[in-house]
Each structure stands twice: as C-alpha cells, then as structure tokens.
Amino acid sequence: MFLVGPGVKAWLSGAQTIATRLGQRFATPPRESRVGSPSQRLGARVGSPQGIGTEANGLAGDDRTPMDSTGIPMHAVTPEERDQFEKLGFFTRLNLFSETELQAIRVAAESVHQRVVDAADRKSDAPGPGSPENPSVGPVDQVDNQKYQEILGSTIKWEWDDDLRAVRSMEPVFQLDDRLAGVIDDPRLWKPCADIIGCPTLSLFSDKLNVKRPGGAPFPWHQEGPYWAYGAEDLERVITLILYLDDASVENGCLWIIPGTHKYGPLESLKDRGTLGRLYTDVEQLEEKPIPMDLPAGSVGFFHRDIVHGSQTNRTEENRRAYLLAYQPAGLHQWRNGEQRDIKTNGSGQA
Questions:
Q1: pTM recorded for the entire structure
Q2: Tens of pLDDT along 294-333?
Q3: Contact 329, 199 (CB under 8 A)
Q4: For the chain, does the N or the C end have fewer beta carbons within 10 angstroms?
Q5: Architecture label for domain 16-123+167-329
Q6: 3 state DSSP class of 189
C-alpha cells in the first residue's frame, strides 16, 4: 500500500490546477502561425557550427575573461547561438567538460544515488511511515504509474519497474554532495544562461540528477512551464540546461526535443491520461518534427523552458546519466524548497 505524503501531493495539486487552466487558455496554435518549413526551422541542425553543437574553446575559471580567436568572451553566447535559441529554442556546446571532470561528477552522482537507496531501504525496515528511526525519509506517493518519495531533502522519482530498484530522478540534489554544488557554480554553465536572460548574476532555480539505468523507462513529451509555474517567482526568466555525464544516443534514451515549439508558449495537455496526463503535452497536432539530442559526454544543451521534450527507454546495457540545472535572476528562491541559493561568481570552472 502506497501512502500519499503532503510534499509531493501539494505540488501535484498546484501543478495540475495550473496545467488545467493553461489547457483552457491556450489552444493548439493554428498551422498558418508556424514559422518556416521544417527544413528552414532545422537548417542549423547539421553541418553548421551553430547547429547541433559548437566545440568548446578551452576551460574557464581564472580571474581573466578568456577570449576566443574573434575576441568574443569565451562564455558569451555567440550571435549564431542567440539566433538559434530565439528561433528554435535551444543551442548546444560540445565537450565542455573533460573526461577527468566527468568522472568526478559521475562518482558524486553514484554516491548520492546510493545514499538515497540506502536511506529508503532503512526506512522500509522501520515500523511505519514517518517513524523517528529515519525522519529524513517520507512515505511513497503513488500517482498513476509513478512513485515519488521525499528522501534527504530531495524529491525522488523511482523507476516504474520495481525490479530495477533505481532512482529515475532526484531534485534538488546539490545539497547531498559538494561536487555537485561546484558544478552549479561553473561559469561554463551559468554564464551563457546569464547572457541569454540578460542578468549579470543568477540564482539556482532547480537542479536535478537523471539516472537512466539499462531498461530505464521513457518520459512523455512535456514542457517545463506547467511544472514550474507553481512556485516560480519569475518564470519568464528561467532557463534550463542538460549536462550529459555519459555519451547520449538514441539507443540509450537520449533527450529528444521538438525545435520551435517554445514559440507557442504552454500547449494543450493530454486528455484522459490520469492525473499526470495534464502535465504531458499533446503533440499530435504539431507540424514540427522531433530530433534526438545525441551528444557526447561532457556536452551541454541550453533550452527554453517551453520547448517540448521527452526521452525514450534505455535499450542498452550502459547508463545514461545527466545533470539538469535551471537558473533564474539572483535573489530569488529555489523551486519546490523555497530556499535561496545565489550562484558563486568566482566558480573555478572545474568540477
């Protein structure tokens, strides 16, 4: 028997209310409103430096501002990247993090994952939910086929398949390992975001660790806006990114996006798909075609909050892990936990 705790239940209730309201206000955009043909919209996808990725020009982090060969600050968003972000809702940078850096982050991710699983296992041996033997572990909330649990200050989403005994995602997570906290302050990540939203200093909106084990389940098409609207203080200036910790491929469940869909704002949600269906996007009437974000480990994708995205099952025997961050202007509070965490602008650039 699964018990519904107050934390996840309150968030789901608020998010569902907002998603319902958005579904009433925003119909699927008319076909004639779409910008350009698919080939025009995805013209930068392949074969151009501003397309699916741009190569990093080195590491960052000393007191000087490194410059590239054209005199542009290394972390600054290029005109091509800005144009692509405005038109397609994303841009990517390849190989921003070295293998040495990635290995340290992977170790941190696995350490946190194990702490969560161990805490949950200890709780399962305790006499009842909320027992004093393990007060940092809450009850499991069953919503449709999803299982959520509050553990060590993080909202845990468990894999659908109980046999995997694995965490699908945990959010927030940086408080559980200083190495992850250091990634948040890395200027290779936050400075392009600050450039896009026009704020010199930022604060953390959300951080999430995705752990897609072999056999890990897919995630339906969705936008972040309906999730984040409940609790965001300045939703219009939230920008998100994904840092791949492993090579991401179609086979291992890489992220897929539908370019250009950010222009429509919140889209209609699915009907008759249970409680969570109202948070999933109905893509049947969209002309835009999805593309896979199949990028090497250490690459980063920067995304508009309203771009439609999702992922598929991991059909390989390898992990597909990723660290997702969302930034907002400085001085604002984190989503969900209400704490404030401003970005340290003297980040070393090393994980």
A1: 0.80
A2: 999 999 999 999 999 999 999 999 999 999 999 999 999 9
A3: yes
A4: N
A5: Sandwich (2.60)
A6: helix
